[in-house]
Amino acid sequence: MRAIFVGGLLALASALPLGAQEPTPVPEPDRRSGAPPAAKPLPAELVPMLRSDLVFNGITRSRDGRLFSPFQRQEQGKGIALGEWVNGKPVAYPDAAWNAWKPGDDAAKAFVGLNAIRIGPDGDLWAVDKGAPGLGEAPLPGGPKLVRIDLATNKVRRVYPLDVATGPKSFVDDFRFNGRRVYLTDAGEPGLIVLDLDNGHLWRVLDRHPSMTAQRPLTGESRQLADPKGAPIYIHADQIEVSPDGGTLYYQPCTGPLYRIPARLLHDPKVTELERAKNVVLHAPIGSTGGTAIDADGNIYASDTDALAILKIAPDGTKTTLIQDSRLVWGDAMWIDEEGGLWIPAAQMNRTKAMNGGTSRVEFPTTIYRMAIGAKPLRN
Q1: Overall average pLDDT of the 166-184 stretch
Q2: CATH number of the CATH domain containing 228
């Protein structure tokens, strides 16, 4: 989850219930013996893997087992933005200089406000920087960017500037690969940015479409969240996934629901916005979500920030609850490893000052859990 403060959005009357789940059926006794039914197997255990006294909002793991997280600075110009977990502690990555931005520095050459990271299909580490020094602030010149880091040399390989596709209220949020294209969500000026990796060309699609726009305030632990001034928080286009065959893009505002659209419509310059809009389909009626992941079979895993649960959404849109646990406070950007484990950062973003009316309720240490789910990872 990546927070952005945007006001003035209505249409709450048509909103779907937040955190809605199907009721769990109560098993009946065995009519033949009168004995109580056999207990259903308990879900796989949540195993604490990493703990920190910093606030993070994601996790990614390289093929050789290296772990990385983006961190949310609680004060401007202080703390790290991207860290590699070394001996259980986050260390500034790729170096101190990229993590040392402070007001007045060149925003194009350091992380101003890192938002999402992931290991790309090429095995490199990619990171998206919203380029704004604070929540709700305008991006700085050169600030919005996608950074590619070579894990073999631990050096920045290339920076893709995003300025030409962003505006004064933009909040570049998350991203996914589809072949030689990258899709990036804009949670501030609702829409989708498409980047061609071969030539660096950028274009926007579905700008301010209702499916990209938050229709209700953000909630966490069944409470409406507020910025330090007490205003409700709206986060537009946020979570995003690509189907295993690359044919479908799934996306949603942070408060849901989850939509889908044929990916080919995002690439063809002859396709009009009207035609794209006609092909947007509701995929699953889920509510406030911290982060997602997708497996090689096309199942999407989404954190329910109100129920403190992880939902599993099948390719046909069927929704089930994978696990519900009070420790999963704001499950954020997740990762499926090569051994079939789901890594879940319990980020507690809803308890930070930025989302809790200016007062922190974060209970340290923050924790990243792993849960065995037996799924095959999808690398896009």
Answers
A1: 97
A2: 2.120.10.30
DSSP 279: T
SS3 at position 196: strand
Asked, for residue 378, whether it belongs to a domain, the answer is: no
Q: How far apart are CA 265 and CA 176, in angstroms?
A: 16
Look at residues 170, 202, 194 and name the one whose alpha carbon lies nearest to residue 276.
194
Strand partners, 261: 249
Please count the residues of the chain: 380
- Residue 177's domain comprises 42-372
The pLDDT confidence band at residue 95, using thresholds 50, 70 and 90, is very high
Predicted local distance difference test score (pLDDT) of residue 77: 59
3-state SS, 164-184, equals HHCCCCCCEEEEEEECCEEEE
**pLDDT tens, position by position, 259-296:** 999 999 999 989 999 999 999 999 999 999 999 999 99
For residue 225, the SS3 value is coil
pTM above 0.70, yes or no: yes
242, part of any domain: yes
Distance CA 308, CA 349 (A): 13
Q: Return the closest-CA partner of residue 156 out of 200, 93, 112.
A: 93
**For 237-264, what is each residue's pLDDT tens digit?**
999 999 999 999 999 999 999 999 999 9
Give the DSSP H or E segment for 278.
helix 273-278
CA 18 vs CA 14, 48, 286: distances in Å: 12, 28, 7
Question: How many Cβ atoms are within 10 Å of 156's Cβ, its own excluded?
Answer: 17
How many domains is the chain built from?
1
- Pair 140, 105: CB distance under 8 Å: no
* 20 found inside a domain: no
Higher pLDDT, 349 or 35: 349
Buried/exposed 105-129: b ≥16 CB within 10 Å, e otherwise: eebbebbbbbbbbbbbeeebbbbbb
Q: What is the per-residue pLDDT across 297-344, written as a single tens digit (0 to 9) for each?
A: 999 999 999 999 999 999 999 999 999 999 999 999 999 999 999 999
Is 178 within the bounds of a domain? Answer: yes
